[in-house]
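Page 47, continued from p. 46.
Same chain as before, 498 aa.
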Amino acid sequence: MTETSPAAPSSTFSRHDKIILALVCTAQFMVILDVSIVNVALPAMGRSLHYSATGLQWVVNAYVLAFGGFLLFGGRAADLFGRRKTFLFGAMLFSAASLAGGLAQNSGWMTAARVAQGLGGAFLSPATLTIIVTTFSGPRLPKALGAWGAVSGAGGAVGSLLGGVLTAELSWRWVLYVNVPIGIAVVIVAFTSLTEAARRPPGAKLDVAGAVLVTVGLTAVIYAIVGTDTHPWGSGFTLAWLGAGAAILALFALVETKLAKDPLIPFSFFKSRATSTTNIVMFMVGASTFSMWYFLTLYYQEVLGWGALKTGFAFAPQAIAIILGAQISARLMPKIGTWPIILFGSACSTIGFFVLAHLSPISPYFTFLIFPTCVLTFGLGLLFSPLAASATSHVGHEQAGLASGVLNTSRQIGGSFGLAVLATIAVNATKNVLPSYVPSFQHLPSLAEKVALNHGYHIAFFFGGVISLIGLIAALFMPRNVGLAARAAAPVPEPVSS
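Result:
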């Protein structure tokens, strides 16, 4: 049994196509879900595992650090060692790490488990997009990308919803345990249904020096960014890590352009205006939207005083809006291309942020909050599939993993950078209103603290809108014919035995 139907203009999925699409979408959903599912559970985790107020950030940052640092390595591994092997490795590591996190008895144990989860996700996530673009062609590709885009976008909102339900009804540990049965099912289906379609070019091998340098360099930069919660941007700590990361990445560029025979990232890859502008837009999307779920979760619980369950259900309309946007995007791409959809999606997200910047300590959910959050997330749903199509349509199948890894890295580093910058802005704005404020998950905020926190979130959403607006401006410089044409016409490689 092969993984693809014979090349044809038909837009119908075979039974096996549906299995493969469900497999990769489930895996991608699991990875993206874990970025946000822990947010609602953070206060309970902090109390149970005795995290300090500043140390609790590492439940999120440890995952982000490993995930973002290893994405390029994971993407290239899918090209060279095969999408099936890379997918299975990532899925098994992610599932095992989720179990370890659920069993954690102290903060160090939990942080280590989150690092392992991020590493597994860094191999799993690029492999899912690689499988999509090397399996489907013609009219089936926009539909497949639409499904992938829907779960990529909805994972953040559903993560907050599911995290709230699990934390309130069971325990915070179940925000990690939930990945275990899903991961086991993914591995079983992958073993039985997924064939290997990647053929390593003759003599090609992994650029070990490049892989080490880019991973260490990106990790140093992300570490500096996520550490700004406790170390100011101008501190020696932050500047030292940023400088070290920049120096290592500069050395990586030298190795790739002058020394490597088979570079991890051929720099000609970025000469394409489609590649460069697409990744700039994705960077801005990550920088703005990652922080949105983080700040909304804190706003609902710390300012409005909601519990974990109510907070979780407040994100349900956002998940629906993202899925709706992704499905509309998939239907429009073959008709109007990707560029108009990217512009409109960016505009929706920008509008949503600027409206959210007017929230108050008593903003009503149904008459105020639901509109901007759904407009914002509808725009996000519109964006993921066209950006994925734009990033992968101009490269050959042998570089699909690389394109996927670069796109995911742009989103992840953008998310880390945006959250660090906006969190710093929010904290400073809060302290301008209430200089004595000290973050703590050990007590409910007073009325004065709620007013100060609301002001901080208000300012953060405004600057999130500014970042989103920069992404919209960058999208204006994308080639207008970028999209699915090249990929739709490209033949799908024959599967090979695994």
